[in-house]
Amino acid sequence: MSQFTNNKDLMKTYKKLLVFLSTIGILVVVMSFYSFKADLRASESYVPQTPWENLKVLPQNISKDSLEHLMKNFAMSLGVKCNHCHVSSSTDPKELDFASDAKIEKEIARGMIKMTNDLNDNYFKPYFPEPIPNQVHVVNCVMCHRGTVNPEKYLSQMGGMYKTYDPERDNRKEKELEAQRKQ
Ligand code: HEC
Ligand code: HEC
């Protein structure tokens, strides 16, 4: 008899335990969900976001600081402002539409970035491995451009020292660019 009641008690205790454990289980699931969400939120502020819309040459995950630094560097090397390569926004003419590919100068600049990378990777790196810091490239925009958009033309002004520049040669792109600038 006493064994029977004991068994019933045992069953009750077992049921209670089951309820208790499943409650804990649910709590753990709910809490881990929240802590996961909290984790996401915490890490979001550290992971650099990639707001870039139209990068075809530069790394997609380039940080805002690095990209701004690079762009200022381009502008200084060529002696121009941002609007040399970036067209005005159609909605607000005071702003530039950085993602737009409307200007041919931007497309030329893409080629220039590739050319510069190519020169560094294939003709300098094998002989000057691991420059410190290794982002510093031997060849860069200013090495040729020296604060002008057309280094050849600039050098031709040095008189007899630089004779390869012929303003009458077939250079349709250069003429097109100059015509655009005069407009
Ligand atoms: C010599 C040309 C040139 C100049 C000057 C220049 N940029 Fe750029 N910019 C580029 C090119 C080329 C790209 C696209 C690179 C690519 O495709 O990977 C770009 C991309 C950008 C982007 C990313 C747009 C997107 O979301 O895709 C921003 C922002 C930007 N430039 C800002 C600037 C600012 C600010 C300046 C002035 C300080 C500036 N640029 C000057 C050539 C230039
Ligand atoms: C090896 C030398 C060299 C290097 C390095 C170089 N450029 Fe150039 N770039 C030139 C020459 C030469 C021209 C002029 C071509 C012409 O019009 O005949 C030019 C033209 C350009 C033009 C078009 C000029 C215009 O009228 O608007 C842009 C834009 C440009 N370069 C951007 C860059 C950027 C950005 C870099 C660095 C990523 C760079 N270049 C690196 C030699 C160079």
Q: Can you summarize this structure?
A:
The chain is an all-alpha fold and 183 residues long. It contains six helices and no strands. Helices cover 55% and strands 0% of the residues.
Query: Could you give a short account of the major beta sheet?
Result: none
Q: How many domains, as an integer?
A: 2
- Tell me what the CATH architecture of the largest domain is: Orthogonal Bundle
The total beta strand count reads: 0
Give the class from helix and strand content and strand pairing: mainly alpha
Which stretches are poorly predicted, pLDDT < 50 over at least 5 residues? 37-41
Radius of gyration: 32 Å
Bound molecules: heme C
Q: How many helical stretches?
A: 6
Briefly, what CATH class of the largest domain? Answer: Mainly Alpha
> Topology as H/E string?
HHHHHH
Helix content: 55-70%
Distance between the termini: 108 Å
In round numbers, the mean pLDDT is 80
Strand content: under 5%
Here the CATH topology of the largest domain equals Photosynthetic Reaction Center, subunit C, domain 2
CATH homologous superfamily placement of the largest domain: Photosynthetic Reaction Center, subunit C, domain 2
GO biological process, one term: photosynthesis, light reaction
Function: The reaction center of purple bacteria contains a tightly bound cytochrome molecule which re-reduces the photo oxidized primary electron donor.
Protein name: Photosynthetic reaction center cytochrome c subunit
InterPro entries: Multihaem_cyt_PRC_cyt_su-like (IPR023119), Multihaem_cyt_sf (IPR036280), Photosyn_RC_cyt_c-su (IPR003158)
